[in-house]
Write a structure and sequence with these properties.
Largest sheet: 3 strands, antiparallel
Helix content: 55-70%
Number of strands: 3
Number of domains: 1
Strand order of the largest sheet: 2-1-3
Strand content: 5-15%
Distance between the termini: 51 Å
Number of helices: 6
Structural class: mainly alpha
Length: about 160
């Protein structure tokens, strides 16, 4: 395993994907109780916050898949393994990263439940930034691939036969 083979874009995408996967367990939403209701919930030991895993039904799974895609590209590059899918890693990670960035933004603007009752917590905002970073890293990796192949040394001229 040679981490020097991982491009900067792949590193950005993989690190953001790993942190986003961890962020799925942080507080994304909380219930907005008044003082007496909050103290009653605290006395009963009821949690008034929810992580992405508990708040979503499918969005959390899509986020986890996008994180796995982002991390797998860097792992394949480090282990010198060819990407097994017909679509390139950078294109797939850019697409999934962009989609989940829009999904997270939508869930920040339109949180699950009534807007007066549910608060958006810091985990959702960090998730939005990390998903955007993951999409940026994958996009950068795709441009690095193009730049590497575009600026490669031209092949040597073919030898000519002497007459």
């Amino acid at each position: 395993m040679d981490v020097n083979k991982v491009s900067p874009g792949q590193r950005i995408a993989a690190i953001a994907g790993g942190l986003l996967f961890i962020d799925l367990w942080m507080h994304w939403y909380s219930v907005n109780f008044s003082g007496a209701q909050q103290s009653f919930a605290d006395k009963l030991g009821i949690s008034t916050s929810a992580s992405a895993w508990t708040a979503f039904s499918m969005t959390d799974i899509l986020i986890a898949i996008a994180c796995i895609v982002a991390i797998s590209g860097a792992v394949c590059a480090a282990m010198n393994v060819a990407w097994p899918l017909p679509i390139g890693w950078a294109q797939l990670a850019s697409l999934t990263g962009g989609i989940i960035t829009l999904l997270i933004l939508y869930r920040i603007v339109n949180q699950p439940g009534p807007n007066k009752l549910i608060n958006v917590e810091w985990g959702a905002y960090i998730g939005f930034l990390l998903s955007a970073g993951m999409a940026y890293g994958a996009w950068r990796a795709s441009t690095e691939d193009v730049a590497t192949t575009a600026h490669a040394a031209p092949p040597p001229p073919a030898p000519t036969a002497a007459v």
